[in-house]
Design brief:
The chain is mostly helical. It contains 22 helices and 6 strands.
Length: 524
């Protein structure tokens, strides 16, 4: 999208050029490749709750939307699936045992296809995600079917994540929205993308919904130029509403945050537009379908846990104390909470998180700051409220990844709020950006190869990197090939990120010499 500087100093943009769709298509192969590599690199059923989600997906693909459920909390749902799927929980033999390598799992018996009863804790979850992911099991069998299901999930999530980044890149001042969106793509996001787990889909649809709304609101005077973004809003909202039981909260937070930041005029303009009206109806129908399913299936009843005598008040206070402890789950706690990532990975992302959040909080425009504070308060208080409600019946069950959709929303809300700030364009800023991107590539790769180490030779008390050349277990294509491919894709992604951040940036001098530039930027 070419950029011009008007006489008054306000950047104006020619219509046409690189559209949101083309920007999304440019980044999609990178995100799809990274997600697919995670899908292949990690052992089957090594992601939390993946056996339950796999059984649910296979049963939904065969027309069993609900199965036979119990009447009380923690009751499992009984469904019918092929025998090899019913036994898929045996593949999770590494769960909670970081020293155990993935060779503990027996090969999946592709010939055991007779339908048998199986139990799943995800039986009364919304079937939308599972219907899409489970379809390969109707065509393939054995391990190939499960890897294909992971691949469908990876491609689906990569598509929505690409739309989110494409929307950020299409904004008038995209530097900070893009930066925040890239920071939000943590190892945990890519890891979940490559698994059978609806947690991933709710994260990426929350991001695509919010950033597409922002792009639409930014161009509310000429909505004909953002039809792709409007369609993305409708589809993302409808899909998000039907992803998980808590997804309606994230949808509401995304819409409210965008409305707070941009004001009521863009919302009114969209409500008067035919395509805007259609997308609002689509989202409303998606929300209605989600609410109907929640009531009919009682999706909150299948939570697993052990009753305690801890009071809700005590649980609320404890969860507030653990706010920053759970934040490591936003970056990555792999396996069944048995594989924390190396300290360097946490250090890099914690610094990046702090920089983005402080930047959003320090913005001068009150509406933007209010949007940031709204989501920030939600990130702090929502886990405490939700955990306090169930602590007596099922104990402490919270994991950081449960809130990852809202935390990703917080980061990109900060990025959008900082859009009024001039992008750093000097030589020092470009050099700094190169080093930060190089650091991101390094820690992403470190996380990937560390997880491979965990499953090939186990995480031992001693450092055992060299033992990986005599592994006990190998993923498909072998770990050296997957690692090399991951690094190559990361480097290509880093180059694309740098070019996107610094393509067609307005000259700083032109803006600096403009009268009243600070007041002008803060009103956009």
């Amino acid at each position: 999208m070419s950029t011009l500087i008007s006489a008054a100093g306000r950047p104006t943009y020619k219509l046409g050029g690189v559209t949101m769709l083309r920007r999304s298509l440019a980044v999609f192969p990178i995100l799809a490749a990274l997600s697919m590599l995670w899908a292949v690199a990690t052992p089957l059923m090594s992601v939390p709750d993946e056996p339950a989600h796999t059984i649910k997906a296979v049963s939904v693909a065969r027309g069993q939307l609900l199965g036979v459920t119990g009447n009380k909390q923690s009751d499992m749902t009984v469904v019918q699936v092929p025998e090899y799927i019913a036994a898929i929980g045996q593949q999770a033999c590494t769960a909670w045992k970081a020293t155990i390598t993935a060779d503990c799992a027996l090969p999946v018996d592709r010939n055991s296809r007779n339908l048998v009863d199986a139990v799943t804790s995800a039986g009364n979850y919304n079937p939308m995600y599972y219907a899409m992911v489970g379809m390969p099991s109707r065509i393939l069998t054995g391990a190939k079917a499960i890897y294909a299901m992971r691949a469908v999930s990876a491609l689906l999530c990569a598509a929505f994540l690409a739309l989110a980044i494409g929307a950020a890149a299409s904004m008038r001042r995209p530097f900070w929205p893009i930066t925040a969106a890239l920071v939000a793509v943590t190892p945990m996001v890519l890891y979940l993308n490559g698994s059978i787990n609806p947690n991933a889909l709710e994260i990426v649809t929350t991001a695509s919904l919010f950033l597409s709304i922002c792009l639409v609101f930014e161009n509310y005077r000429n909505l004909a130029t953002v039809k792709t973004a409007m369609l993305t809003v409708g589809v993302s909202g409808a899909v998000l509403a039907n992803t998980r039981a808590l997804s309606l909260l994230w949808l509401a937070a995304a819409v409210v945050a965008a409305a707070v930041i941009y004001g009521w005029r863009p919302l009114v303009a969209v409500a008067k537009n035919r395509l805007g009206q259609a997308m609002m109806v689509l989202i409303a129908l998606g929300c209605a379908a989600s609410l109907v399913w929640l009531v009919v299936a009682n999706s909150f009843q299948s939570l697993l846990g052990t009753p305690t005598e801890i009071s809700p008040g005590q649980a609320f206070a404890t969860m507030l104390d653990l706010t920053f402890v759970y934040s490591s789950g936003y970056i990555g706690i792999m396996g069944w909470l048995d594989t924390p990532l190396p300290g360097a990975v946490y250090a890099f992302w914690n610094f990046a998180f702090a920089a983005i959040i402080v930047g959003g909080l320090s913005i001068r425009r009150l509406q933007s700051r209010a949007g940031v504070l709204l989501v920030l308060v939600g990130v702090i208080i929502v886990p405490a409220i939700l955990q306090a409600q169930v602590v007596e019946s099922i104990g402490y069950i919270w994991q950081g990844r449960y809130l990852l959709a809202l935390f990703v929303l917080l980061l990109i809300v900060c990025g959008v709020s900082m859009r009024t700030r001039t992008a750093p364009t000097g030589q020092w800023a470009r050099s700094l950006t190169c080093w930060v991107i190089a650091g991101a590539v390094g820690v992403h790769f470190y996380a990937f190869i560390y997880v491979l180490r965990r499953y090939t030779v186990g995480i031992q008390a001693r450092t055992n990197w060299t033992e990986m050349f005599e592994p006990s277990w190998q993923p498909p294509f072998t770990w050296p090939v997957l690692s090399a491919a991951y690094l190559v894709v990361l480097v290509l992604g880093g180059v694309l990120a740098y070019k996107t951040l610094y393509s067609n940036r307005p000259k700083a001098k032109s803006i600096q010499n403009s009268p009243g530039r600070h007041e002008l930027l803060d009103t956009i």
